[in-house]
Amino acid sequence: MQTPENRLIGILKQNKIDFVATLPCEKIKVLLDQVSMNFFHIPLTREEEGVGIAAGIALTGKKLAMFVQSSGIGNMINALLSLTGFYELPLAIFVCRRGVYKEKIAAQVPMGKRLPDILKGAGISFSTINTAGDISLIEKELPDVYNKNKIHAFLLSPAVFESACDAVLPSPPTCPARCRSGEDFETESTPEFTRYEILKILAAHLDSKIVVCNLGIPSKELYDIKHQPSNFYMLGSMGMATPIGLGISLSTDKQVVVIDGDGSILMNPGSLATAAHFSPPNLTIIAVDNSSYGSTGSQPTLTGSCVDLAFLAKGLGIGNVVRVASKQQLNDVLTRPEKGLKFIHALALPGNAKVPNIPVHHFEIKKRFMEFIVA
């Protein structure tokens, strides 16, 4: 007789899931261990990051399923609605529903009990898996997630996987420390250009590349300078540019450029660690750092007082980190004939260009972008 874990893995394989992204949960640890051995596994630093990675993968036409605890839904709601739902991208979320069955941690109870109401309020469909027999609901609902571009949550009661809960898993192999260069960055580098002017310099290097651009005014500026079908303009979901680009880079051999910002990276810095873990050779992250939240009134970010994004990226494991401030420096680093994950810390002056809104519907942005990827 099949275990619940094996049955669920079989359903995922039947539906040709390409990737799984997970955060740990003791109640389904055996399931998570087996999932990681059967699929391309993406360990996450935060649930919201997984939404961005899943969106990037979906834009390439491939499939990702996510495994989180019920508490993680609280960290995902905005990204699910303003990114996954907004662009009508598919995502199956398998949620270990804590707080409702033999729960020993009192803090898990409030979210676990209210989770169905929260999902209803957000307009996210869900199925409740309370017994091993209910796994047939997954078999029934999962194909529609990907065929109809839906978000669907499968609420997994720990009771279903209770028989495996006491299993002792083998210790993971020790991860050797990566050898990092002792490069020091020129802290006295002085920005010379605004973000708009930096984007004009970048434009000459973006032909035939997949470009994921940070939300708000950066996307408007890029559209004004260099509109092309391979540009994915973010219209919401701050902090998701790098995760989306990472997801795409794991799903295609084409070159992927992320144009991110200091405020966005500070909101979701763990995505740099995940990028470092996989180090896709076709991914370049350009952090345009003007020490301000440009799209919301140019309030200062902490990169103006205490945070150095180049050191942050290096400390989180990215080996190839370069700081640039001049046109020559930026052109030099973009024309180097080298492969591997790159993080370019581009210092910028604060300020926004006066550009119009993007006159393209978000579904048209998605359509043209996906057509470019599969071409």
Note the main attributes of this structure:
six-stranded parallel beta sheet, elongated, alpha/beta, Rossmann fold, 14 strands, 2 domains, 375 residues
Secondary-structure element series:
HEHEHEHHEHEHEHEHEHEHHEEEHEHEH
Low-pLDDT runs: 174-182
Helical stretch count? Answer: 15
Strand content: 15-25%
What is the CATH class name of the largest domain?
Answer: Alpha Beta
Q: How many domains, in number, for the residues?
A: 2
Annotated CATH homologous superfamily of the largest domain: Thiamin diphosphate (ThDP)-binding fold, Pyr/PP domains
**Mean pLDDT over the residues:** 91
The largest sheet, given as strand count, sense and whether it forms a barrel, is:
6 strands, parallel
CATH fold category name of the largest domain: Rossmann fold
Layout of helices and strands:
Elements (H helix, E strand, L loop, with lengths): L3 H11 L4 E4 L6 H10 L1 E4 L3 H13 L4 E6 H4 L3 H9 L5 E6 L12 H14 L2 E5 L5 H13 L3 E6 L38 H9 L6 E4 L3 H9 L5 E3 L7 H9 L6 E6 H6 L2 H9 L4 E7 L2 E2 L5 E2 L8 H7 L4 E5 L2 H9 L6 E6 L14 H13 L1
Parallel strand pairs: 1-2, 1-3, 3-4, 4-6, 5-6, 7-8, 7-9, 9-10, 10-14, 13-14
Antiparallel strand pairs: 11-12
Helix pairs in contact: 1-7, 3-5, 3-10, 8-9
